[in-house]
Amino acid sequence: MYRKTMRAALEEARQYKDPKTEYMVSKDGKTIVIDKKDWPTYKAKGWELAEEVKPDYNNIIDLLEDWLLNEDLNGLILRNH
Question: Is the whole model's pTM more than 0.85, yes or no?
């Protein structure tokens, strides 16, 4: 099986086309696009995901509380008698 060297991968120009099969990774100010299957190799060599989305759990809890409050006000949630 043929595997590219890191240098060859860095020199190859490539666009980010499909987020289902590709990752954007960065290291030392350089950002490249790789196949997801190659991620473990790049991660082991110190590369990081270029953009990682982390959920804001506080915002999720606030939204849930607002939703439950609105549902209760509309009489859709059974109340304890």
Answer: no
Q: Are 25 and 16 in contact (CB under 8 A)?
A: no
Distance separating alpha carbons of residues 25 and 49, to the nearest angstrom: 4
Residue with tokens 């196949």: 35
Q: How many CA atoms within 13 Å lie on the side-chain side of 80?
A: 0
Angstrom distance (rounded) from CA 42 to CA 3:
13
Helix or strand (DSSP H, E) at 22: strand 22-27
Tokens 């939204």 sit on residue: 63
- Cβ atoms within 10 A of the Cβ of 35, count? 13
pLDDT in tens, 42-71: 999 999 998 766 666 777 788 888 888 776
